[in-house]
Amino acid sequence: TADPVTHPDTAPASDALLARARSVIPGGVNSPVRAFRSVGGTPRFMERAQGPWLWDADGRRYLDLVCSWGPMILGHAHPEVRAAVTEAAAQGFSFGMPTAREVALAEEIVARVEPVEQVRLVSSGTEATMSAIRLARGFTGRSVVVKFAGCYHGHVDALLASAGSGVATFGLPDSPGVPASAAGETVVLPYNDVPALEAAFAERGSEIAAVITEAAAGNMGVVPPAPGFTEALRRLTRAHGALLVSDEVMTGFRCSASGWLGLEGVPEGGAPDLFTFGKVMGGGFPAAAFGGRADVMARLAPDGPVYQAGTLSGNPVASAAGLATLQRCTDEVYQRLDEVSEALAAAVTDAFSRHGIPHRIQWAGSMFSVFFREGQVTGYEDAKDQDTALFGRFFHAMLRRGVHLPPSCFESWFVSAAHDDEAVEHAVRAIGQSAAEIA
Ligand code: PLP
């Protein structure tokens, strides 16, 4: 077949927009990884999207393997979700008062994730983890939080230590602006390392309010929990009176209808105490949530003393988008995500093996990532030990062939149920030819 290179490396309309953006927005972007710094070149400014396809400001079409970093599980501008959004918007955008739509979204989440008895809706994953940490501290009366290297939980001060993708992409150790006092209450441990966890609890168990973990890590590339890791988290937190917070912002409603928990099942010893959600549950709009045990959630204002609030929390348009999306996340949708991911991963394995490109593919449900190295990746040190420059060349080879990958090798690839056979064939062809190009 003909080489499907369709796009030149230069993108005049995006260049012009980036120049304009840079004068009014730091770096020209509103979230750092969008800037293409780790792969070089001009980020493509997008104009519209439909199903699995994106069109940039130069009118070029790309197959989308980012899916807005997870939310667009049904594909872009799904007609029924769009109708729900339009209907909600026609009734008003935001009231600052309770609405039926947010109740329905909360009910949908509680119905799907069995251990979640109550949820509070917020507007971003960052807000969800920030609030869950505050609640855990308020509930336990303790202040230390344990997190794992390479896990990202949003840009919360206490959690922005050794935080994976965005920070890894920029090679920053941590962020200036996070006070030592905030970071000092955070203990960072290697992921999947039970002895390190045991040692931390032996030393500071009575000070630990919570352990927060990505249900399956997706921000250092995809690194699922090793067998027994989640059980150890449950056992040690319970033994020491700390809460276990499972961050399902990325995995929630994507790995299965009930997220990673639905795939892995409730760990021996019991479910996590709190969960955080975002991405898919907002259907592309700003909606996120934290929730869990009713006795813990009861400590939140207005019933309890732990304060948490939001002008746009439970926004009716975002709730309508989230609800319409979740209601359409059927078995067939998850089956299609699996088929598409498996076809793409098989194409990578085939092409990279044929051309002698080192690679390792890891999975969490239909989420997968390609590490540009050999050998199992169990944590952040392994993940950092890969050929990021080679990834950059692969990224641009794919972009030229009209496929938009996440612009960092520390990210999961995301697909949607709208990725039809044409989309898969397009990606498979591009993968084969891009591998040949970079070999
Ligand atoms: N937690 C996890 C696991 C995430 O992947 C992310 C974002 O990528 C967040 C939290 C933060 O969510 P948001 O970007 O909506 O603030």
UniProtKB/TrEMBL annotation:
Subcellular location field: Cytoplasm
Full protein name: Glutamate-1-semialdehyde 2,1-aminomutase
Pathway(s): Porphyrin-containing compound metabolism; protoporphyrin-IX biosynthesis; 5-aminolevulinate from L-glutamyl-tRNA(Glu): step 2/2
A single BP term in Gene Ontology: protoporphyrinogen IX biosynthetic process
PANTHER family: GLUTAMATE-1-SEMIALDEHYDE 2,1-AMINOMUTASE (PTHR43713), GLUTAMATE-1-SEMIALDEHYDE 2,1-AMINOMUTASE 1, CHLOROPLASTIC-RELATED (PTHR43713:SF3)
Source organism per UniProt: Serinicoccus chungangensis
Quaternary data: Homodimer.
EC number: 5.4.3.8
Cofactor(s) recorded in Swiss-Prot or TrEMBL: pyridoxal 5'-phosphate
Enzyme class: isomerase
Catalytic activity: (S)-4-amino-5-oxopentanoate = 5-aminolevulinate
Record-listed N6-(pyridoxal phosphate)lysine modification sites: 279
Family membership noted in the UniProt record: Belongs to the class-III pyridoxal-phosphate-dependent aminotransferase family. HemL subfamily.
GO cellular component, one term: cytoplasm
Pfam families: Aminotran_3
Record bears the keyword Transferase: yes
Gene that encodes the chain: hemL
UniProt keywords, alphabetically: Aminotransferase, Cytoplasm, Isomerase, Porphyrin biosynthesis, Pyridoxal phosphate, Transferase
GO molecular function: glutamate-1-semialdehyde 2,1-aminomutase activity; pyridoxal phosphate binding; transaminase activity
